[in-house]
Amino acid sequence: MAIKYVEKKGRVFVPTKKARELSLAGQDVYKKAAANRVKFWEELAREGIDWIEPWHTAYEQKGLKFGWFKGGKLNLCYNAVDRHLDRPDKTAIVFVPEDPQEQVLRVSYFELFKQVNKAAALLKQKGVKKGDVVAVYMPMIPEALVFMLACARIGAIHSVVFSAFSPDALRTRIKDGGAKVLITTNYYYRKGKKINLLKQANKACRFIKIKKLIVDRKKVGKTFEKMHDVIVKPESMESEDTAFLLYTSGTTGKPKGVMHAVGGYTTQAYWSCRYVFNLQENETMWCTADVGWITGHTYACYGPLLNGATTVIYEGLPNYPKPDRYLKIIEKEEVNVFYTAPTALRMFALAGTEYTRKYKMDSLKILGSVGEPIDEATWMWFYKNIGKNRCPVIDTYWQTETGSAVIMSLPGIGPFIPTYAAIPFPGMDFDVINEKGKKVPAGKEGLLIQRPPFSPSLIRGVWKNEKRYKNYFDKNGDYTAGDGAIKNAKGWFRILGRSDDIIKVAGHRMSTAEIEDAIASLRGVVEAVIVGREDKLRGMVPVAFVKAKAGLSEEDVIARVVKRIGPIAKPAEVYFVEDIPKTRSGKMMRRILKTLLAGEDVKNVSTLINPGSVKAIGEMIKDRAKRKARCGEDWEMILEREKSNGKEK
Ligand code: PRX
């Protein structure tokens, strides 16, 4: 009989006795951490991480600049790979190719060690030194992780760019980071098709001085076979040295390079993986996120490897070639922790529940959700159909900037409440404030902030842009997350979504300004505004309002966005409008457009210079709504069916 880790208690779910017994986090962990947060992290850092030299100052803050474990020296790669060599045959990475006929690859820790060393030697041959930036534009194949680890080994700063970003987007990131080398792949598979990544990479690098390292997808797992074994000594890194850069969207058109520090990141990635997923050495974790995003960095690569566990990486779409592909992978690889995004879950649910019944999923113990708010129906679907009413759903809230998960319920402590991310990780202090910086009463909506001492893996800087780093902090000196939230009387947090102009499209973080800039670059466009509209499948989708001279089509607009950013940023709808609603001071009224998209009427238009535009746009939207997207209808049908199934039982 599979173990039951969770049970229902009133309206919430709590860990069973067994889950409490298995918990790696003690039941008193919050109390212990709250007593002295810095001391708590010091103890964790000492216990979980191998240091070359101990630190002299655990936490230091001067103005907005803060740091952890000053004086301490360590190497991230050593902690993720070398220190597990006492169990050399243990599988570190399981690579599942998209084509079910292609063989699954298993990379042991010893094999990983050898490959990482060879990759490090290759980077050195290319002249890469400590502190240099290396761009990584790769699909989900083991070599992506190998090169990331190799960078960490020699103290180079990797900047991974999601492989579905366009050449233009890659180029912007390469240029801003000043990358010396680009590591890429000739092709990979997606939905059964060969995607020529090298062509994209070549386009991105036109007229840029950059060296390239190209991995042949055909030889996946054998890239380093012909090289002689070498040992490259792990670089002794200062705790506050930069571990890596990861570009993410901000509120301006230009993406920002979020910087993470070695000591704090290593410590928090290790411990969050251990406590949030109760991950043990003999276990397997499958985080479905691509390494191009922070989730892939921390929970597909570093977190499981730091813990000496096995990480599953999968090349393709989780429902390819059939909806049950992901279930097959979980069963076959005996996955213990399955971590994915609400969008993926909504997609899985679209295929119904019949197919899920064929799979027992006995190996699973923890389910995780990340990237966007998870609605109650999706939470319950996950819990029932994948977790078989046995496993907790851990809704983890965090960001590229926080580096690791920061708000969630711990599996052996709970509670698990649909729509609540719940409780800050031990040793962290979050709160909800209003625009004036004052704490809001329990149960009231406000802005999410983190108070110092800041969590160890929190952002340390924005690459070459001090001003943008400073913008993260409010006048009280607290870190502002950019999310709306509610904290209830029990101290549980519910995340409401972005409070700025960033939108999460299928869990992917997009800047409305970046999409607007892309559209505005089209000849004939006078102005363009992007607003997010709720979408039953993807959470949010961008919708474009474009004022343009005649002759432009919806396809032109979409093609430009795909070219500048990538298909993930495609507007779901494009409205060519005569005028964009504006205030007298010229401010574009996104709020009004959002209201219209939600199908609601706008009451007060007196402050606008062009009130007539509102009516016209409203009519266009209503007209289009009549031709409702088919997938929306399917989703509603499934929800209805689920509801009636529930009643029958
Ligand atoms: O709006 C929040 C949302 O994702 C944003 C961060 O996006 P990114 O930097 O791409 O990192 C995503 C993965 C860590 C947040 O500001 N978000 C993330 N997790 C949740 C969430 N919103 C609600 N609930 C979550 N669990």
Describe the structure.
The protein is an alpha/beta fold and 649 residues long. It has 2 domains: 6-481, Rossmann fold (3-Layer(aba) Sandwich), CATH 3.40.50.12780; 502-644, GMP Synthetase, Chain A, domain 3. It has a 7-stranded mixed beta sheet with strand order 7-6-18-17-19-20-21. Strand 11 and strand 12 (193-196) form a beta hairpin. Helix 2 (29-35) packs across helix 3 (37-48), helix 3 packs across helix 9 and helix 12 crosses helix 13 (376-386). The mean pLDDT is 95.
Distance between the termini: 23 Å
Query: In the residues, how many domains can be counted?
Result: 2
Count helical runs. Answer: 19
Strand order of the largest sheet: 7-6-18-17-19-20-21
Q: Give the biggest beta sheet.
A: 7 strands, mixed
What percentage of amino acids are in beta strands?
15-25%
CATH architecture classification name of the largest domain = 3-Layer(aba) Sandwich
By CATH, the topology of the largest domain is: Rossmann fold
CATH superfamily of the largest domain: ANL, N-terminal domain
Number of strands: 31
Quaternary status: single chain
Q: Enumerate the distinct ligands.
A: adenosine-5'-monophosphate-propyl ester
Instruction: Report the principal-axis shape.
Output: globular
State the share of residues found in helices, binned by percent: 25-40%
Mean pLDDT, to the nearest integer, reads 95
- Poorly predicted parts: none
How would you summarize this macromolecular structure in one to three sentences?
The chain is built from 19 helices and 31 strands. The protein is of the alpha/beta class.
